[in-house]
Amino acid sequence: VEYPDLVVVGAGLFGLTVAQQAVEHLGVRVEIIDVRDHIGGNAYSYMDEETGAEIHKYGAHLFHTSNKRVWDYVNRFTSFTDYVHRVYATHDGEVYPLPINLGTINQFFHAHYTPAEAKALVESQAGELAGTDPKNLNDKGISLIGRPLYEAFIKNYTGKQWQTDPKDLPAGIINRLPVRFNYDNRYFRDTWEGLPTDGYTAWMERMIDDPRIHVTLRTDFFDESQPYNRKALAAAGVPVVYTGPVDRYFDYSLGELKWRTVDFREVRYDEGDHFGCPVMNFSDADVPYTRAIEFKNFNPERRASQNPDRTVVWEEYSRFAERGDEPYYPINTEADKALYARYEELAKAEPRTVFGGRLGTYKYYDMHNVIDTALTAYEEQVEPLLKK
Ligand code: FAD
Ligand code: NA
């Protein structure tokens, strides 16, 4: 093969941003490979024909940012709807607004507290463990918001997320539990939020709509029977941007970084609207899933093209990832962080290869973080490599 100027491993938002920048700034030819059968990485979505819902294949994705550089950049490729993210929770036969706010508190205590009264109540309940040093996540939760609210809304949800009793989880998993002493249940506090008007995949296709960018799907960087494999590219001196798992790149030589994954169970209902909202959390232990996503409700502006009689819901079941599962959330224990730091040293020393994205740097990144770090990595690492 005639090699391109740059090979990007992974067609997620990190890889797409770097490829777009390389073509725009230097006019080089870029090959993007991905082992999956579609571009977009975890932000990929597809249209469900039966319901007209846009299904986010790897879990619900909401775009939000306060970063002007990122907002200006993404708006070159898509406009955004005026969707504002809100989440509700089912607990003990009632539906409450989240994050915990004055509406949640007054509904829970059947009260009409003012902001100051609610604050005083939560502080006094949190005082139950005053003066002690919380040894586990359960005690930490109680010390942050008091036992009643913690046990109703946090304890079992967190237990399901980690498949572990919060008494056996380290206190350090949570540093704060936001409680709002007003009725604001807007989930994100960022300057901008919304969903891409024509969907995630159309947005990401436009990022790489250039004859100098070529995409090869169903292609694994480590498969030596395909031309864009690690060994062949190293031998030919082709620069690589790698957004796969960093431990995999080094053959797990120092050990495996740990992740949580999510299994999705699809349920279809003979109703136009099942929950009346896009995200319903289930706070109690008797429901085995953490939350359910009703995708139609992310795009109310598309009602006219959605099926009024059918809806599709994905229930989410969280568990520890085994090798071969989709890695979603880094576990990030102290041991994991120390292990990543050692892989990071190896990655820095790897010639003509730039590591990036959530898998390449073992970080939980929102989309805006990934785009921001990709723009910076392009400037600071990739462009110098291409000019050499
Ligand atoms: P990815 O999207 O993971 O892309 C990496 C790509 O590399 C993948 O397509 C993979 O197939 C490919 N690859 C890996 N190894 C190889 C190999 N050996 N050969 C070839 N290709 C390879 N962000 C938000 O801003 N808002 C949200 O609401 C939100 N919700 C999320 C919900 C879930 C369940 C998850 C998991 C993430 C969520 N995110 C959200 C984060 C968002 O998905 C990421 O920030 C973003 O998709 C990461 O982009 P990336 O390019 O770093 O990685
Ligand atoms: Na490097």
Number of strands: 16
Question: What helical percentage do the residues reach?
Answer: 25-40%
- How do the strands of the widest beta sheet line up side by side? 7-6-12-13-14-11-15
Q: Tell me, what's the shape?
A: globular
> What can be said about the biggest beta sheet?
7 strands, mixed
Poorly predicted regions? none
CATH topology of one domain: Rossmann fold
User: How would you name the CATH homologous superfamily of one domain?
Assistant: NAD(P)-binding Rossmann-like Domain
Small molecules held by this entry: flavin-adenine dinucleotide, sodium ion
What CATH architecture of one domain would you give?
Answer: 3-Layer(aba) Sandwich
- Given helix and strand content, the structural type is alpha/beta
Q: In angstroms, what is the radius of gyration?
A: 23 Å
- The rounded distance between the terminal residues' Cα atoms is 22 Å
Average per-residue pLDDT, rounded, comes to 96
Quote the beta fraction: 15-25%
Question: Can you walk me through this structure?
Answer:
- This protein has 388 residues and is an alpha/beta fold.
- Among the domains are: 6-81 and 193-253 and 332-387, Rossmann fold; 98-173, no CATH class.
- It is 32% helix and 18% strand.
- A hairpin with an 8-residue loop joins β12 (279-282) and β13.
- The longest helix is centred in the C-terminal third of the chain and has 21 residues, at 367-387.
- The protein binds flavin-adenine dinucleotide and sodium ion.
